[in-house]
Amino acid sequence: SMSEFLKKYGLFLSLAIQIGMISLPTPEGFPVAGHHMLALLVFSVILWMTECVSYPASAAIILSLMIILLGFAPSVAKPTVMYGTSAALASGLKGFANTAWALVGAALFLSIAMTKTGLDKRIALRVLSLVGAKTNRILIGVILTGFALSFFVPSTTARVACMVPIVMGIISAFGVEKKTRFAGILMIATAQADSIWNVGIKTAAAQNLIATNFIKQILGYDISWGEWFIAALPFSVLMSIALYFVLLKMMPPEMKEIPGGQEVIQKELIALGPISRQEMKLMIISVLLLCFWILEKKTFGDFGVTGPMAKQLIHHFDTSSITVIAITIMFLPGINILDWPDAQNKLAWGTLFLFGIGISLGTAIIDTKAGVWLAKSLVPFFGLTYAS
To answer: In this predicted structure, what is the pLDDT of residue 42?
Structure first.
């Protein structure tokens, strides 16, 4: 089949297209390094689409190609000299010194803390216990759980890692076959609700932090948590409603209600027992963290304080920094929510590596002027130019 062919030969296809792009003449006024980075971008997209190698392996391949393609290209600042492999490697590692990358890492640690303490399961079961046992209500419950967790777990990957085992456990506890439409819509809703709430909440996804970093770098304006929330919330709400109706229309559940569904949820909650000290500690840290995110760039004047204090910021921490501090607190003696063997064995290191390389590639595309060239080429093509 075509998918098997692409999986087998995707790497060769990607390389052939990349070599073809590099061999084309470089447009006038466009740096050679930018030309090489665009070719690498196309190579990366094809590599990911064909899934011919694992994602962590693709990150290593992209880093190696960046060393070669940037290292042996003339410098954008000094076209008479080459970048050199050392400078190219430094560009390839830029993503690992990025605040958004730090947030992804911290979020993955937070996800481990959630699953280790069972707080994520408690939140999910609490939400599901409130909605009822009708299949459409359980679907609403899954979407609402994705919404609730998006405030506390700042990464889609991490939230899906929390949610999938819980939803799978609930499907099994209900005694529902895994191949039913009902099981299918719950799993689709788990993934899609998490993606939808990436849009509404700045800290729900690292790509939001990457975007705000680039906006700050290019336009000089730093978008706060609150500003993002006000602007983006309507989109996530509308998409959540659309997700609910589209799923019910396209994959109507085989049954209207799960017999004994509420009892199953209650039984699961009782099995969790009373909230533990570890869960309580994690809940306190998570709520404080959320408060820091919400109050980012907020002044006392925003809350009605007048006089000399009005323009004073409530705190000076950025989103990523305070999240890293919160994770550090979880490792401290006496807190002990996390220990290193947990992180070492359960953290998705490959995902973290891929994310770092993705940021490096994006940064290199901007630094080598490839992003500007691409925008200038594509904007007129799509008729998006405007008269100033």
So the answer is: 92
Structure tokens, 386: 């405007």
Residue from 253, 284, 279 nearest 177 by CA: 253
Q: Can you state the angle between helices 181-200 and 225-250, rounded to 10 degrees?
A: 160
Task: Note whether 169 and 271 are within 8 A (CB).
Answer: no
What residues contact residue 228 under an 8 Å CB cut-off, 6+ apart? 201, 202, 208, 212
The candidate with the shortest Cα–Cα distance to 335, out of 288, 273, 271, 272, is: 288
State pLDDT tens for residues 283-339. 999 999 989 988 888 888 887 788 888 888 888 888 889 999 999 999 999 998 999
Q: What mean pLDDT is reported for the chain? A: 87
Q: What is the pLDDT of residues 159-182, one digit of tens each?
A: 887 788 888 887 887 777 888 888
Rounded to whole angstroms, the Cα distance separating 350 from 378 reads: 33
Nearest residue to 135 via CA among 52, 24, 222, 259: 259
Here the tokens at position 340 are 């290193």
Cα angle 119, 122, 127 (rounded to 5 degrees) comes to: 130
**Res 203 pLDDT > 90:** no
178 close to 134: Cβ distance less than 8 angstroms: no
Establish how many alpha carbons lie within 13 A of residue 316's alpha carbon, considering only the half-sphere containing its beta carbon: 2
- Phi, psi dihedral angles at 299 (to 5 degrees): -105, 165
Contact 285, 330 (CB under 8 A): yes
Maximum Cα–Cα distance across the chain: 75
pLDDT at res. 39: 93
48 close to 89: Cβ distance less than 8 angstroms: no
Half-sphere exposure of 236 (CA within 13 A, CB side): 24
- Give the span between the Cα atoms of 214 and 211, in whole angstroms: 5
- Distance between CA atoms of residues 69 and 265, nearest Å: 55
